[in-house]
Amino acid sequence: MENNVTFGANTAIHGTEGMVNASTGITTSYDNGGLSAEMKTFYDKTLIELAKPNLVHTQFAQKRPIPPHGGKTIEFRRMKPLAKNLNTITEGITPAGTKMTVVPLTATLNQYGDYIEQTDLIETTAIDNTVLEATKLLADQAGRTIDTIVRDVLQTGTNVNYCPKKTPNGYVTTTSRSQLDCGSKLRVVDVFKAAAQLKAVNAPTIDGKYVAIIHPHVAFDLMQESGDAWVDIKKYAEPDKILNGELGTLGGVRFVESSEAKIYYGRDLSKSSRSLDVDYYTVSAESENVEATGVQTSYAIRTLNSFSSDILGRNILYFSTILDTTIPVKVVGINVDEKMLFIDKDIEVSSDNGDTLYPGEGGNMGLAAYSTIFLGADAYGVIDINGSGTIEHIVKQRGYGNDPLNQRSSIGWKAFMCAAILADDYILRVESGSSFSNDITEAN
């Protein structure tokens, strides 16, 4: 039976600023102490200012305001570089000239937000200003949320380098994330190579240098290796121009540190174990049922450990003892009762004794892999966090909603955000391991 609620013509609805008459639209302030306009402005500014330290990934973007009544699609624009003109000019004759080409790119605007409820007892007995304390927590959450949305768009760039792996016999080239381990650290040569690649595509600099967003773990490795080549921000000639989160420069690149720089790390393969032990591998499993795919496959792995159905669709690494290497595969079917995994390709192992399966979203053997993003100017665009209507701090006094005894109030935030890559060539993702890769237990 459906429960339908009908509002009468004179129903009063709880709004942000007070009780709204559904018929006339007239708002009456709450009689139990609604926020004054000055206090609302104060809290709005406080939320934005407290969120800004977390907005590392937004600070190098083209910024666009939310167009009023413009729908959910935001249009970013970039100018296409002009081609060389090698034609000579004839004396006295005006050449045809060249037109600028504007490249429009669009992104869909989405809304995000969260809130904290508190009781009248907390408001009455708390020593601290609970609204302000909640605002600090929410601002931190809002900043990290918005920053992550932008970061994840940057991760979709198509240009990527993988740091070589250090071995007893020297450095070995890596060609995929699944090969990275603690020996695949970001080095000085990788920084110079990244800068050279951006220069080669004529990526414009940001105030004279390229910018890299780096995780503290990777920054530690790089600074240890770079020695005197690293220029600390304390040595800057213009300290007033230091970027938010900036550490220093190396090879014409300014490094900005963020704990939200992307870490790739797969969750455990079972509830009781990070990895799965292989019982056997077979290329003929016609009698096995393939759950949830409806397609029979001939590549199957039987495990000694139990696993749950959420392994379906995941990338995993098959470590072959006899080959002494890991092979990335995807799980395309499962039979949980029989402990069977069906994979997307033949891994061609001649023996399965001692073989192991690891999560495949991170580095080698399931270790954490890190992403350092190198950027030129105008590489991507975002919504301007300081723009009107972009982010809002919302305080509802006791008595709002279904609260007949005025027992609950709430503090929340709401924001619009979207991001778009404008010039893919101006973004380079350099993936590496770290001396901390063994210590990481989750992705971010």
Walk me through this protein's architecture.
The protein has 444 residues and is an alpha+beta fold. It has a domain at 276-360: Elongation Factor Tu (Ef-tu), domain 3 (Beta Barrel). It contains five helices and 27 strands.
Keywords:
Elongation Factor Tu (Ef-tu), domain 3, 6-stranded antiparallel barrel, 444 residues, 5 helices, 16% helix, 27 strands, globular
First-last Cα distance: 43 Å
Q: What is the alpha-carbon Rg in Å? A: 28 Å
Say how many strands there are.
Answer: 27
Architecture (CATH level 2) name of the domain at 276-360: Beta Barrel
Structural class: alpha+beta
Percent helix, as a range, is 10-25%
SS element count, helices:
5
The name CATH uses for the topology of the domain at 276-360 is: Elongation Factor Tu (Ef-tu), domain 3
What ranges have pLDDT less than 50 throughout 5 or more consecutive residues?
Answer: 1-20, 30-35
Q: Regarding quaternary structure, how should these chains be classified? A: single chain
The CATH class of the domain at 276-360 is identified as Mainly Beta
Mean pLDDT: 83
What's the main sheet like? 8 strands, mixed
Q: Roughly what fraction of the amino acids lie in strands?
A: 25-35%
